[in-house]
Amino acid sequence: MNVLVVYESRTGNTRRAALLMADAFEAAGHTTTVCPTMDVDLKVAADADLVVVGTWTDGLVLFGHRPGGAGHLVKGLPTLWDKPTYAFVTYAIRPGGVLRKLNALLASKGADVKGALELHRRHLETDAPDFVDGVLQSVAAAAR
Ligand SMILES: Cc1cc2nc3c(=O)[nH]c(=O)nc-3n(C[C@H](O)[C@H](O)[C@H](O)COP(=O)(O)O)c2cc1C
User: Which residue among 26, 82, 132, 135 has its CA within the 20 to 30 Å range from the CA of 19?
Assistant: First the structure.
């Protein structure tokens, strides 16, 4: 498969998660491109069989959680019609309802969101490859 991983990152955690995911997709034999939201390669996006979008949790810790850099996501993501899409967020303490809001944002871009996960910023080395395993299992199950 051709996989596109798009990330929005302020302090580097989500970027690191995206790169770890790319390593895991590549290790499983999939051609993978990683792009920041404001520099998405449209040709790669058009050719992608699978899209992963990640961002960070922005909020007031206990409430008001929303996808970090939502403006960039809206502006930078191409329309994702017919692309199976998986989403993730990184967080520090409490992600609240951020995934629900990220899924809604991606749906507004035409994405078919198949799954989403919150990744604690301290556990990216283990949780990012696990996320990829889950995505690949989900894709295989959908193809059966
Ligand atoms: C302005 C701001 C607000 C944040 N709000 C929350 C929050 O409400 N809950 C939480 O768990 N983490 C919160 N965080 C932590 C980030 O979501 C977390 O560190 C994330 O991994 C940052 O990703 P990045 O390094 O890719 O920017 C906040 C960080 C910032 C800078």
Answer: 82
| Ligand 1 and 95: CB distance under 6 A | yes
Work out which ligand 1 atom sits closest to the CA atom of 16: 26
pLDDT digits (tens, 9 = 90+) for 86-124: 999 999 999 999 999 999 999 999 998 999 999 999 999
Q: What residue type is assigned to position 144 of the chain?
A: R
- Written as one letter, the residue type at 107 is A
Q: What angle do CA 121, 69, 77 make, to 5 degrees?
A: 110
Q: How far is CA 4 from CA 21, 26, 53, 86, in A?
A: 10, 11, 8, 10
What residues contact residue 101 under an 8 Å CB cut-off, 6+ apart? 65, 66, 67, 70
Other C-beta atoms closer than 10 Å to the C-beta of 5 total 24
Ligand 1 atom nearest to 15, measured from its CA: 26
Ligand 1 centroid from CA 99, angstroms: 13
Spacing of C-alpha 99 from chain mean position: 10
Q: What is the pLDDT confidence band of residue 82, given thresholds at 50, 70 and 90?
A: confident
